[in-house]
Design goal:
Layout lengths: L8 E3 L9 E4 L3 E4 L13 E2 L11 E6 L1 H10 L11 E2 L2 E7 L13 E2 L6 H10 L1 H4 L2 E8 L2 E10 L7 E9 L8 E9 L1 E6 L1 H6 L1
Parallel strand pairs: 4-12
Antiparallel strand pairs: 1-5, 2-3, 6-7, 7-9, 8-12, 9-13, 10-11, 10-12
């Protein structure tokens, strides 16, 4: 097994099997041979990526849908899958630093990265190329599940719907019925920014 592979990383041996998408009148999209596990508790359809960690090579640019969803729901560390760090100031997230992109970031941001534990902050800031370009740790007091990110589909010229865009939608958005989800989204609220170096010194 490749060392230091994050829990939510997809592996090359976890290729999605072939499938057929259909339109379900009044309900959006669905699989032709759909099962109960294909949808979450809000009725949104999800990718069918097999859960076979450590099979093949890690695909660091890809996130495994089921493991990402599990880590987000249970507030597990996205690297080691242990409980994320939590104090009176909130749950710990480690994010790319986008403070220059819009005022107030990361307040009310829709995060697709699950939280993290303190030991994995040290590891991630050292090994992750994206985070080496600029990272910030955030204590989050409230992080309600807000929706999903995935492939938006529309009716095609044939009977099979086809993907048209990658979007993030709230669960109450009518387009959610036309999304095949790959990420669960939490909205970060009541955020306090921390320099990751301060955590690494403790």
């Amino acid at each position: 097994m490749t060392p230091h592979t994050p829990y939510i990383t997809q592996w090359s041996g976890e290729r999605e099997p072939e499938f057929t998408l259909i339109e379900r009148p009044g309900r959006g999209i669905g699989y032709l041979n759909e099962t109960l596990t294909d949808r979450d508790d809000q009725g949104v359809l999800w990718f069918r990526t097999p859960n076979r960690p450590a099979h093949g090579e890690p695909l660091f640019a890809r996130v495994h849908p089921l493991r990402q969803r599990r880590a987000m729901r249970r507030l597990l560390c996205n690297v080691c899958a242990n409980p994320a760090d939590h104090t009176a100031d909130g749950t710990l997230w480690l994010l790319r630093d986008f403070r220059d992109d819009w005022p107030g970031w990361p307040e009310n941001v829709g995060a697709i990265e699950p939280p993290i534990c303190v030991p994995c902050v040290r590891l991630s800031t050292r090994l992750c190329p994206a985070l080496r370009r600029g990272a910030v740790a955030v204590r989050v007091r409230r992080a309600p599940i807000a929706g999903v990110r995935g492939a938006l589909h529309s009716r095609g010229p044939s009977s099979e719907p086809h993907p048209t865009d990658d979007i993030t939608v709230t669960y109450d958005d009518p387009r959610a019925r036309w999304v095949r989800a790959i990420n669960l989204v939490r909205q970060l609220q009541e955020c306090t920014l921390i320099d990751p170096a301060d955590l690494c010194r403790n």
